[in-house]
């Protein structure tokens, strides 16, 4: 076993990992826990060497080899650009429990030792006149334990309802079922828990579900697989995305906005449309069909009842209604660690998952440097200890860097306000959606290749009804006019480039140098953090679902703290 001095040393990645495991063994030894730690160390060494050998054999590139020459894989014309939404009576969307039994069950991270459990009971109402259910009429309870069927602990939470009201003749109103949120505290890291939820006083408990807690923050423990999805919706393409994701067995899910696309409908339901303004030019307000939210919750339950789902809002969650109220569905249905991360806002928050600190930012609330979100972000980043959580990952809905025509430079104002702060604190990876396609950037800062900049990834390709984006701003005739792509929140800050081959122009005439790879296909991403400097990123295309060992894009993202060290990191 190592000496105390050895435990403080910083060596190579393998040495550091082995020393930390050895130090952990020493702690176990003092607690008289009889574990064969030497075997643990050998297994760890084997796994590290095995990953290196596999990567070498597969010739997976790393960002150390970058910046990469821009590459485009054009849309495959043999594929459909999109598909219709699943009908509301589709088996995967239908309610399969009676009124007071839990429906739409999901879990989310509250802290490294606590978890949110959420569900819905009762029946939603839709019509000209709707009366909300009393949320106190059904209790909010979770029973849980470490063995199946043996629930040694019980905890209660809170419940609420919300309404979506439209003060226009002919539009229907909606009031939800009872939405329950219960926080379970005092959980052990890396432990499997079995649970049921509901109201035990009326024998209305759910069937048993199971979740596994993640490791405590630390430089050598990471979630095995982190799934990233954006702009999902409820189409047959969405089904393929989720089925493919389930096969890849994630331990955590990031949903980077635009969930249900309930606002592609009139309040009367019917068939959803790919272009709302085209289909309903006379609509007095952007209507929604709120039962699509309930359908989405049921669609996701087989996955989200056991794997934590961490969401951030997108433009399709705005959903304006009477009295200027917006985002009511999003704010009511999801429990996020806003209080736990001191943001006190469901629009932005942060959390830890092993050695990764995640920052989820809101693009549809004030992001100016004088605002509350910016002040919170600055303090949150200041408090990050990179010796405990080496990886710093950020996510929000609209991308700052995108070479597609759709939403081109749409959130340039947000980039100008926040990018320097993220760069200052050494953010490693940024995930966004909004553009319905895939794109991976070279490391970039302020439109300039920079080895200390983040790797930006656009994954707005979940499969929604609006179809995949296929046009690039650098294609002839596809550069959008500077007055287009107006954001639904914030100002317009479109700029011409000040350097490089696009100097003085609004669009490049070729794929920008900061765009490493782009492809118009539906799919999802998976991040596997190997250690404190290496993380394997894989983009899985839907059309590769049934192909053995096939990826649309794969690369090791490598942190270089010794190159990019800053006083604050």
Automatic annotation (TrEMBL):
This is Purple acid phosphatase. Residues 504-545 form the Purple acid phosphatase C-terminal domain. Its cofactor is Fe cation; Zn(2+). Residues 225-438 form the Calcineurin-like phosphoesterase domain. The keyword Nucleotide-binding does not apply. Belongs to the metallophosphoesterase superfamily. Purple acid phosphatase family. CDD domains: MPP_PAPs. Keywords: Glycoprotein, Hydrolase, Membrane, Signal, Transmembrane, Transmembrane helix, Zinc. GO terms for molecular function: acid phosphatase activity; metal ion binding. InterPro entries: Calcineurin-like_PHP, Metallo-depent_PP-like, MPP_PAP, PAPs-like, PAPs_C, PAPs_N, Purple_acid_Pase-like_N. It catalyses: a phosphate monoester + H2O = an alcohol + phosphate. Residues 102-213 form the Purple acid phosphatase N-terminal domain. It comes from Cephalotus follicularis. Pfam families: Metallophos, Metallophos_C, Pur_ac_phosph_N. It comes from the Eukaryota. The chain crosses the membrane at residues 39-57. Coiled coil: none annotated. Its EC number is 3.1.3.2. The keyword Glycoprotein applies.
């Amino acid at each position: 076993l190592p000496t105390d001095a050895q435990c403080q040393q910083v060596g190579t990645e393998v040495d550091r990992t082995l020393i930390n495991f050895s130090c952990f063994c020493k702690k176990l030894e003092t607690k008289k826990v009889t574990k064969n730690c030497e075997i643990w160390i050998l297994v760890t060494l084997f796994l590290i060497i095995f990953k290196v050998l596999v990567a070498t054999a597969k010739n997976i590139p790393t960002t150390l080899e970058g910046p990469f020459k821009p590459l485009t894989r054009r849309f495959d014309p043999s594929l459909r650009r999109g598909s219709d939404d699943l009908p509301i009576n589709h088996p995967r969307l239908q309610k399969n429990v009676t009124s007071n039994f839990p429906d739409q069950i999901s879990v989310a991270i509250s802290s490294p030792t606590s978890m949110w459990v959420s569900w819905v009971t009762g029946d939603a109402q839709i019509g000209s006149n709707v009366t909300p259910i009393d949320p106190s009429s059904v209790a909010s309870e979770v029973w849980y334990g470490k063995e199946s069927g043996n629930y040694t602990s019980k905890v209660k939470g809170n419940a609420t309802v919300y309404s979506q009201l439209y003060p226009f003749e002919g539009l229907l109103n909606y009031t939800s079922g009872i939405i329950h949120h219960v926080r379970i505290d005092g959980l052990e890291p890396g432990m499997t828990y079995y649970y049921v939820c509901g109201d035990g006083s009326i024998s209305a408990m759910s069937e048993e579900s199971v979740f596994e807690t993640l490791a405590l923050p630390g430089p050598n423990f990471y979630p095995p697989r982190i799934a990233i999805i954006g702009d999902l919706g409820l189409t047959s393409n969405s089904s393929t995305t989720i089925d493919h994701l389930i096969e890849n067995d994630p331990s955590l899910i990031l949903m980077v906005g635009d969930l249900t696309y309930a606002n592609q409908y009139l309040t009367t339901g019917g068939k959803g449309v790919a272009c709302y303004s085209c289909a309903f030019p006379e609509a007095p307000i952007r209507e929604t069909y709120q039962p699509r939210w309930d359908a989405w919750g049921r669609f996701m339950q087989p996955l989200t009842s056991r794997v934590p789902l961490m969401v951030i809002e997108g433009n399709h969650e705005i959903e304006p209604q009477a009295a200027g109220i917006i985002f009511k569905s999003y704010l009511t249905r999801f429990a996020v660690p806003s209080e736990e991360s001191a943001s006190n806002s469901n629009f932005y928050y942060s959390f830890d998952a092993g050695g990764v600190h995640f920052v989820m930012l809101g693009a549809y609330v004030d992001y100016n440097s004088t605002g509350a979100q910016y002040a919170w972000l600055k303090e949150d980043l200041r408090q990050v200890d990179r010796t405990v959580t080496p990886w710093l990952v950020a996510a929000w809905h609209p991308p700052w860097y995108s070479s597609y025509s759709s939403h081109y430079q749409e959130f340039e104002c947000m980039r100008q306000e926040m990018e320097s702060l993220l760069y200052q604190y050494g953010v490693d990876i940024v995930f966004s959606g909004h553009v319905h396609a895939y794109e991976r950037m070279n490391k970039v800062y302020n439109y300039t290749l920079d080895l200390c900049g983040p790797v930006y990834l656009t994954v707005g390709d979940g499969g929604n009804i609006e179809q995949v984006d296929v046009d690039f701003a650098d294609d002839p005739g596809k550069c959008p006019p500077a007055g287009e792509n107006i954001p639904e929140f914030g100002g317009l800050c479109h700029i011409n480039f000040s350097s490089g081959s696009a100097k003085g122009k609004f669009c490049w005439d070729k794929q920008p140098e900061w765009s490493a790879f782009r492809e118009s296909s539906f799919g999802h991403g998976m991040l596997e953090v190997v250690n404190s400097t290496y993380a394997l990123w894989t983009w899985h295309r839907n059309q590769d679902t049934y192909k053995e060992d096939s990826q649309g894009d794969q690369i090791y993202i490598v942190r270089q703290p010794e190159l990019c060290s800053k006083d604050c990191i």
